[in-house]
């Protein structure tokens, strides 16, 4: 089925989870492993489906402070949007999948996610305008049950014409860092922003 786009997350108990996209229409698949690398349980479908002819891509994941993990992905039904699913440390779903961003006409994709010390997590992504060659990096904070805490906020500078492909990490002390790529009339560059 042409699996692609792997992502991996280490859990607090030493186990780890590998996730990937199963072909173009097969959805997002996961497999847990013990700390010794032995398979733990069966493969599982992350997405709530899979209905036919829905495209999945850009799977990303992060560990949460309660021992679980969150998975994010891009999905196309009638437009490209972002979804997430939270799991506990045993690989059981905590609630239903939730929309990170699902009501915009612009392209929403390429998420990056980081878990915070208080149990919340932050997702950032690339939003590309439908009517012009312009893209920005947007972020939103969520509780450990997938509820958006604050309004979305823009990470990339408004002067940057095309900002895309974000990445994220948690720092010692609880701060987190986003970085992203920029392409504009000046050339290409990598930018970083740190948040408390």
Question: Explain this structure to me?
Answer:
The structure is a single chain. The chain has no helices and 15 strands. The chain starts with a strand and ends with a strand. It is mostly beta strands and 196 residues long. The protein is 0% helix and 57% strand. It is globular, with a radius of gyration of 17 Å. The mean pLDDT is 90. The chain has a four-stranded antiparallel sheet, with no helix packed on it.
Number of helices: 0
Report the order of strands and helices: EEEEEEEEEEEEEEE
Question: What's the N-to-C terminus distance?
Answer: 42 Å
Strand content bin: over 45%
Rg from alpha-carbon coordinates:
17 Å
**Number of E-state strands:** 15
Assembly of the depicted chains:
single chain
Concise synopsis of the structure shown:
The protein has 196 residues and is mostly beta strands. The chain is 0% helix and 57% strand.
Keywords:
mainly beta; globular; single chain; 196 residues; 15 strands; 4-stranded antiparallel sheet
Secondary-structure blueprint of this entry?
Layout: E1 3-10, E2 16-22, E3 28-33, E4 39-45, E5 55-63, E6 69-76, E7 80-87, E8 98-101, E9 107-115, E10 121-128, E11 135-142, E12 153-154, E13 162-170, E14 176-184, E15 187-195
Antiparallel strand pairs: 1-2, 2-3, 3-4, 5-6, 6-7, 7-8, 9-10, 10-11, 11-12, 13-14, 14-15
